[in-house]
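Predict the 3D structure for this chain.
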Amino acid sequence: PSDVNTPEQFWDLLISEKEGIEDVPASRWNINDYYDPDPAIPGKMQTRRGGFVSNVSEFDAAFFNISPREAVAMDPQQRLLLETCWEALENSAIAPSSLSGSDTGVYVGISNNDYDRLRSRTQNSVDAYSATGNAFSIAANRLSYVLNLNGPSQAIDTACSSSLVAIHQACQSLQTGESSLSLVGGVNLILTPDLTLTFSKARMMAADGRCKTFGNDADGYVRAEGCGVFVLKRLSDAQANGDPILALIKGSGISQDGRSNGLTAPNGPSQE
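Done. Predicted structure below.
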């Protein structure tokens, strides 16, 4: 939502049980051209709703020493990661310049390449920055480049679990001493109707735009946008440095479901 731009505002949204779901804004696509309650209709989706970030086209390229031409070629997800990472460091009372040359790691969950699809549909869409502007790897690597970080730098795509797996990998890096600090998070923007159409055909979308997880009337999920970045340290290091500590991660694990009743379906016993 347009009024949720800080961790404090997001926390207020959660504890106040407010709703961040809305009709697809015209800046994405004309929902009336794509909506039909019958998901079997070709070229139609069975939901009108989702969660959307405002002003995703806005970016202060000069602040990050990026030329306007390169900025236009950059997936807005990369731009949003740069902005959010900078804010995360400020909220952690860490000067970004102080990390230059450090073993700080970067782990980014990302799995959507809508912007690349959009650009491929326009004329003269290929230039010197097309590849780096849309590669998942660069979503993480660009953070390391801008901040001059020498630790691991990985983009992680495991679909819905991408950000959680990124956190697990960051924790592992901290525990082994490979990194002394990790920037970890995830980003998702919905810039084309393509995947929503696909998921509607797979009967994965909740028709009313509401998740009803584990409910008897559960009929799918709701797609949404956002970007979040955490600054992680070993607890002993954070305490020794007097850092503000918002939460502790007591443990993490990673696995795959193996064979279930469908490629995209969860497997309860495997996850347990």
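The CA atoms of residues 114 and 192 lie 6 Å apart.
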